[in-house]
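Observation: inputs received (chain + magnesium ion).
Thought: call the complex predictor directly.
Action: predict_structure
Action Input:
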Amino acid sequence: MNRKTLPPGEPGRYLGQVIGGSLTAGLAVKLDPSVSPEEVKAGVLVTVVGESNRYVGVVTNIELHTADPSLPLLVSRDVPLLAQAARGNVAYAILTVRPSIALPLVAGPGTGAQPARSIPGHFAPVHLATSADISAVFGEEDERHFWVGSPLDLDCKVCLDLPLFVMRSNGVFGKTGSGKSFLTRILLAGILQSGTAGVLVFDMHNDYGWLAKSEEGPAVKGLKQLFPSKVALFTLDEAWTRRRGVAPDHVVRIPWEQVEPEDIALLQETLNLTHVQVETVYLLREHLGKRWLDEFCSLRSNAEAWKALREQVAAGAGTLDALYRHLQTIRRYSFLTEGDGSSPSSVQAILDTLARGMTVVLEFGRYRDDPTAYVLVANFLTRRIHERYVKQTEEAFTDRAQAPIPLVVVIEEAHKFLSPAVARLTTFGRIAREMRKFNVTLLIVDQRPSQIDPEVRSQLGTRLVCKLDDEQDMDALVERMQGGRELKAVLASMEEKQQALIFGHAVPVPVLVRVRPYGPDFYSAIARTATPSLQGEDLFG
Ligand SMILES: Nc1ncnc2c1ncn2[C@@H]1O[C@H](COP(=O)(O)OP(=O)(O)O)[C@@H](O)[C@H]1O
Ligand SMILES: [Mg+2]
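Observation:
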């Protein structure tokens, strides 16, 4: 039967009835004998019809029970008749259902979907959710509601409320190869299409701009190919970008002179700097002034001056030499330039492009596997862009100037910026903690959520979680959440690829989806449904 054709209100397949449970632990639902436990998957959505509400919830667990503890010892599958008689009756399955929202049975003014604060009574019937239920809960696809995937057992659309989504920092998680970059590209296409926010992507692995690799077939389109007039391609490596037959809109250059001690401090992990070396960097800035980096490097050839400097900053014998070597590693990067950057800077080019309502994708080209280059560049640019957003937003409060367009900053390998050791230092940590105060939020993409600072994790509005294997990573994503243990059970049941459990701010109920396929059908759907921009004020006002 095609459930898509069912009229609204007609329930989906009958699964069983409520026999116990609580609001906090979830409902216990006895599975009807006509349904095999194998037919019900963790993560599916169900409806429960109470006396005045229809509840929508998610199946988080399935357990086998017997009415009498000695039954399993007495009944065996060698006696098929007995086993068949017992199965489903005195030997039965219990589903745990977490009710998330309540829809009033009788619609009236102001009676939309509400978070479930009550539960249905005993024997309330439980059905699989239908397409009509899914639309009632997640909204119909329109300029605000973006289709991200389908429920496991239904051919219909689960939508994300985009304006709600971009209001907070969010995370896409999953182990390598689980589909994070594909899902992120889909989300970004949705944001771009709706015009809900400007986007700046630090595209470490060259996954978002122009052509992206696919494990299963030919390369897929990048965002610039889907939205040629809305996406500017910035690159750190012009030759690499041009080799693919595309001219970059801007080649990013970072003036060596503008690199600050903070920029170096954040490279502690990737450059393997000791604590003392990092402290010395700050002392060098204090002693040598604004041009500390150049001064420091040129002093190296003068033995006398080098010795004097060592005494000045009270550094141990090897400290300055080691630091010099590390800084030379950075200095070899072709994107670092001499001079003070007085010509129009890359920071300004990004700000100007964003101000025109465009998205910036910064490709790393040959630096794609170089975490030092990634952390250095992403931090350098984001710190300065964030400063400008703070200033502009504050001016907008006092002078009625125009507030900047909301900005979503996308970082892959987010734990490098947001580990407990550095989250307090980086602008990224600050953006996550400030929420949307200055119109900047993060979309973090990461395979090791447990390595992200817990405070930052707790600020994430919506989480889209693809397959994870590591217990700690799963625990980290559901910690301190009501029903977290049950959600973890759903996470553990997921398939290797192209599935995501979505929960948080932008969806009314946690939902496990097959992520929309990213390919030719997606491209044409995007081309068909170009929509006018929603205004920034509507979102952040
Ligand atoms: N939504 C999707 N549509 C089409 N293919 C997908 C999708 N999600 C994942 N895949 C397949 O899985 C592979 C791995 O996905 P990817 O996003 O690169 O993983 P990750 O970024 O988590 O390492 C892709 O190369 C692609 O073949
Ligand atoms: Mg990836």
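Thought: report the result.
Final Answer: The chain is about 35% helix and 25% strand. Residues 174, 176-182, 214-216, 497-498, 515-519 surround adenosine-5'-diphosphate (ligand 1) (CB under 6 Å).
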